[in-house]
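call fold(seq) -> tokens
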Amino acid sequence: MLELDAITAGYERGAPVVRDAHLTVAAGEAVGLLGPSGCGKSTLARVAALLHRPDAGTVTLDGSRVTGWRHRAPRARRTAIGVVFQQPRLSADPRLSLRDLIAEPLRATGRRDEAAATVRELSRTTGLGDDLLGRRPHEVSDGQLQRACLARALVLRPRWLVCDEMTAMLDASTTAALVAVVEAYRRESGAGLLAVGHDRVLLERWCDRTLRWDEVAAA
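ret:
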């Protein structure tokens, strides 16, 4: 279970963008979080992904209370969560080829020997041709780069996925393809999913249940 209880979070002291938020995702469950731009849903997603420390409240992951965020979180906890952001160009190192971008988490966790085979498998799963793997972010489209970012999120086989507006910048066909990849992974692995977005139709078709922002957090 991923549980967020009474979360208040922001980026400036005394100016929270999320107030008293409550959210749970069960193992194997897909939960959609629906809200307009600027409401704070991406901040809550970053808290759920252990990338932003809340000002108040608790996060519980797999039965244990989280006490460290970002690099202070234990490796086993950090690697249990895969994250895909809205803007792939802001989350991808422009110096890396797509091959190295996907392999980066494996190398960072001492699993370099697995990189070649795993990258090859995931690139095919996400619809990236071998000819694209040697290119850098500026040499591919937003959709192709987001495919690589999704492959990177899956490369350590996380138990939890956080997709923060993953498809907001993509066309309908690429959106459908990436959602299908996530769903295939969930069925095969039993991973839980938090999908954040503002497209009600997409979230309701994709997720087991969809929550509006005003059901999750205080005004």
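The chain is about 35% helix and 25% strand.
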